């Protein structure tokens, strides 16, 4: 399994990440200024083909999404991150964990979305591995679950490459249909 090259933490708050750094990527808390780049990614029908309800069509929706992500960060000290290519500084995707409840169990939902120009280059795997490593190190008692549509084979490959296993006990109905679960449960 891939692990982050480096994780910078806030000194006063144990285990709260400032940013995660991998061989090629930097993951950090989103800022409102990131909304336009998030819109560029989530307005692409190919990016949301397995979750069409996530399609964004205007900047106001992207700004609201960033505010939602920041609310989770303010409450819990972690959440969805913006992912940047370290070489170019370009925002190329989002990846992170956030609390959710599945079948009455509170879990960390792992998500990742990337600009199509990065597909096939291992960016999603690299970012998801870094986030999973952080979650397992910082919140070791918590279950991490990636919810993936049955037809999204690329996302399933990312989940299995980082060590998640198919976990049908957490399959659930999502907004766009059934979501298969992949978890780090032993």
Short structural description:
This protein has 186 residues and is of the alpha+beta class.
Structure in words:
The chain is α+β, with helices and mostly antiparallel strands and 186 residues long. The protein has one domain: 3-Layer(aba) Sandwich (Aminopeptidase). Helix content is 27%, strand content 31%. The protein has four helices and ten strands; from the N terminus they run E-E-E-H-H-E-E-E-H-E-H-E-E-E. Strands 1, 2, 3, 4, 5, 6, 7, 8, 9 and 10 form a ten-stranded mixed beta sheet that branches. Strand 5 (91-102) and strand 6 (105-114) form a beta hairpin. Helix 1 packs across helix 2 and helix 3 crosses helix 4. The longest helix has 18 residues, at 59-76. It is globular and about 40 Å long. The two termini are 15 Å apart. The model is unreliable at 1-5 and 9-15 (pLDDT under 50).
Blueprint (SSEs and pairs):
Layout lengths: L5 E4 L7 E5 L3 E4 L6 H8 L16 H18 L3 E6 L5 E12 L2 E10 L8 H16 L5 E5 L4 H9 L3 E2 L5 E3 L2 E7 L3
GO molecular function, one term: acyltransferase activity, transferring groups other than amino-acyl groups
Pfam families: Acetyltransf_3
Keywords: Transferase
Mean pLDDT: 91
CATH class: Alpha Beta
Q: Return the structural class.
A: alpha+beta
- Alpha carbon gap, first and last residue: 15 Å
Tell me about the biggest sheet? Answer: 10 strands, mixed
**Discrete helix count:** 4
Sum up the overall morphology in one term.
Answer: globular
Helix content: 25-40%
Name given to the CATH architecture = 3-Layer(aba) Sandwich
Q: How many individual domains?
A: 1
CATH superfamily: Gcn5-related N-acetyltransferase (GNAT)
The total beta strand count reads 10
The fraction of residues in strands falls at 25-35%
Which H/E pattern describes the elements?
EEEHHEEEHEHEEE
Which spans have pLDDT < 50 for at least 5 consecutive residues? 1-5, 9-15
Quaternary status of these chains?
Answer: single chain
CATH fold group: Aminopeptidase
What Rg, in angstroms, do the CA atoms define? 15 Å
